[in-house]
Design a protein that fits this description.
The protein is α/β, with parallel strands linked by helices. It has one domain (12-91, 101-139): DNA polymerase III subunit chi (Rossmann fold). It is 29% helix and 27% strand. The chain contains three helices and seven strands, in the order βαβαββββαβ. It has a seven-stranded parallel beta sheet with strand order 3-4-2-5-6-1-7, sandwiched between helices. The radius of gyration is 14 Å and the shape is globular.
Length: 143
C-alpha cells in the first residue's frame, strides 16, 4: 500500500518540492514531480536546473518523450509515468492515480487556503487507511 508523507509549513512550495526530490534522489529513488499546471511545470523545470546550488539533479519534463533515465520527471495532468517509486505532489487535491506510487509526498504551504486543502487531502488518505507521516518544514534543518 502507498505510504503518504505530509510536509507542512513550506514557505516556498517549489523549493520545498526541489528539496524533497533531492533527498529522494540521494536515497537512490526516482521522483515524479506532479505540478498543477503548465506555468508551475515551467517554474519547477527552471528551479531544478539550479537546485541544489552545489550540484545538479538530472531531470526532464513528462512530455511524452522518453524519460526512462531521468531521476526526476516534472509534469502536470499526466498519467504516463516511467516509474512508480515516489510522487511529489503540488496539487490542491489528491490525484486519482496516487496509489500507483510506493510513496506520495504532499507539500503544504503556509497560506490558509493551502492549509485547508492539505487538511482535506490528509483526511482523504486517513479515511482510506493509508499510512501517513507528518513533517514540519519549520523544524527541518537545511530547508
Amino acid at each position: 500500500m502507498t505510504k503518504v508523507d505530509f510536509y507542512t509549513g513550506a514557505g516556498d512550495k517549489l523549493r520545498a518540492a526541489c528539496h524533497l526530490s533531492h533527498l529522494a534522489v540521494q536515497e537512490g529513488l526516482r521522483v515524479m514531480l506532479c505540478t498543477p499546471d503548465k506555468p508551475t511545470t515551467e517554474s519547477m523545470d527552471q528551479l531544478l536546473w539550479h537546485y541544489p546550488p552545489t550540484s545538479f539533479m538530472p531531470h526532464c519534463r513528462n512530455d511524452g518523450l522518453t524519460n526512462d533515465g531521468a531521476l526526476v520527471v516534472v509534469g502536470h495532468c499526466e498519467e504516463a509515468f516511467s516509474h512508480n517509486e515516489v510522487m511529489v505532489s503540488l496539487h490542491t487535491a489528491c490525484l486519482p492515480f496516487f496509489s500507483r506510487f510506493e510513496r506520495v509526498l504532499e507539500v503544504v504551504g503556509r497560506d490558509p487556503e493551502d492549509i485547508r486543502f492539505g487538511r482535506e487531502r490528509f483526511a482523504f488518505y486517513r479515511d482510506r487507511g493509508y499510512e501517513i507521516r507528518h513533517f514540519d518544514f519549520s523544524t527541518m534543518r537545511g530547508c
